[in-house]
Amino acid sequence: MGAGDKISNQAEELAGKAKEAVGDVTDNERLQAEGEAQQLAANVKQAGEHVKDAVDEAVEGIKKAVDSKT
């Protein structure tokens, strides 16, 4: 995961937490739900980035294994 993506995802998650907290304090259910949804979206993006990183690492490992046998 690139540093920029990681920072962006964490910022989105924090914004969602803040929005949810404001919704809690003001008893605004819509704002609470928006905050929860924003956090979920950020978490999904982070999970996608982790999968991408794992695939990239696996491909590199396969390349090294093939190169060492030739």
The major sheet is characterized as:
none
Q: What is the C-alpha radius of gyration, as a whole number of Å?
A: 19 Å
Helix amount: over 70%
- Class from secondary-structure proportions: mainly alpha
Unreliable spans are: none
Q: Distance between the terminal alpha carbons, to the nearest Å? A: 31 Å
Number of strands: 0
- What proportion of the residues form beta strands (DSSP E)? under 5%
Total individual domains? 1
Description:
By secondary structure, the protein is mostly helical. The chain has helices at 3-26, 29-69. The radius of gyration is 19 Å and the shape is rod-shaped. The chain has one domain (3-69). It has two helices and no strands.
Topology of this structure?
Blueprint (H helix, E strand, L loop, with lengths): L2 H24 L2 H41 L1
Helix pairs in contact: 1-2
